[in-house]
Design brief:
Oligomer: heterodimer
Structural class of chain A: alpha+beta
Radius of gyration of chain B: 37 Å
CATH topology of chain A: OB fold (Dihydrolipoamide Acetyltransferase, E2P)
Number of helices of chain A: 2
Shape of chain A: elongated
Largest interface: A-B, 22 and 21 residues
Largest sheet of chain B: 2 strands, antiparallel
Number of domains of chain B: 2
Low-confidence stretches of chain B: 1-6, 8-15
Low-confidence stretches of chain A: none
Shape of chain B: rod-shaped
Number of strands of chain B: 4
Number of helices of chain B: 5
Order of helices and strands of chain A: HHEEEEEEE
Number of strands of chain A: 7
Number of domains of chain A: 1
Strand content of chain A: 25-35%
Mean pLDDT of chain A: 81
Radius of gyration of chain A: 21 Å
Mean pLDDT of chain B: 80
CATH class of chain A: Mainly Beta
Strand order of the largest sheet of chain B: 1-4
Chain lengths: 141, 149
């Protein structure tokens, strides 16, 4: 009898810990996405030259996509503009993201590593980390 | 409990006026008590029980079929939702990139983990898990009830 009670207490505690961990992970991920979305929206004028809604639109409204915050550690989509150390991709729901590349960025195509092989129209997957200006510093493309 | 059946002997009888009666009369005086066949009570009770079980089974089968149809529809709907969300979130691209080169994945595991976690289709996953749980619950409930009856 005592063993059963002890077993159920242990199971209950373990379940509680798992729920707390999942909840904490959700909070952490949500916070990361919210922070990147905020910086992306705050820097939209600077990154993309002009408000997303156009100059005659409601410029005070945040140009966030409907439904969800934007992911800051991964991106995928089509390259729409290439500059010297950065390029712009258009991902899902037509959200543009500025991707910063550096000498630490690995660009692979299939199994081969390439250099400066990115051009407009390419479809890419990016793994990286967000910076303070709402851009993604790419580590792997 | 003892059951005794009363039989009535019916016979044609002439009325005092000499007219024949067409119908049989039950004569109370001729009533005789007959013992029922052995085990009749048990057989009656058994038949009632069988009928009750049949009703229970019918109700269970119809309930189970309804629940199963609903849960399979829910699975189908939630699966479609999950696939759509996975395609839109790009999680498959990130997982594919991680699998294709384990060296890079281990070097950048924090970024990969964050990218995958950020793109998890939470709503679809929850809906699909609940609907799968419903199917298992329905099957288990049916099997349990079947054994019970």
């Amino acid at each position: 009898m005592n063993k059963d009670i002890f077993k159920w207490i242990i199971i209950g505690l373990a379940g509680f810990v798992i729920i707390v961990l999942i909840f904490s992970a959700g909070m952490l991920i949500g916070e990361m996405k919210a922070r990147f979305s905020y910086r992306w929206a705050e820097s939209y004028h600077k990154n993309f030259a002009g408000p997303k809604t156009g100059f005659f639109g409601d410029w005070r409204k945040l140009p966030l996509p409907p439904g969800d915050f934007i992911s800051g550690h991964g991106a995928f989509g089509e390259i729409i503009e290439v500059k010297e150390n950065e390029f712009v991709i258009k991902g899902r729901e037509n959200v543009e993201k500025v991707i910063i590349t550096s000498e630490n960025t690995t660009i692979t195509k299939g199994r081969a590593t390439i250099k400066n092989g990115l051009k407009v129209g390419d479809r890419v997957v990016i793994i990286g980390s967000p910076n303070e200006e709402g851009q993604i510093e790419a580590k792997l493309i | 409990m003892k059951i005794s059946l009363i039989y009535f002997d019916g016979e044609k009888k002439k009325s005092p006026g000499g007219m024949h009666q067409k119908a049989s009369f039950f004569r109370i005086s001729n009533m005789r008590q007959v013992e029922p066949p052995a085990g009749l009570y048990g057989r009656i009770i058994l038949a009632i029980k069988r009928e009750q079980e049949l009703q229970h089974t019918r109700r269970l089968v119809f309930g189970f079929a309804g629940l199963l149809v609903v849960s399979f529809l829910a699975v189908s709907f939630s699966w479609t939702m999950l696939i759509n969300q996975m395609e839109n979130s790009g999680i498959l691209y990130f997982i594919s990139a991680a699998i294709s080169d384990f060296g890079t994945f281990f070097a950048l595991w924090q970024n990969f983990s964050s990218a995958i976690l950020e793109s998890l289709p939470i709503t679809g996953l929850i809906a699909f898990t609940i609907s799968i749980g419903m199917v298992f619950f329905t099957l288990r409930f049916f099997l349990y009830k079947k054994n019970y009856y």
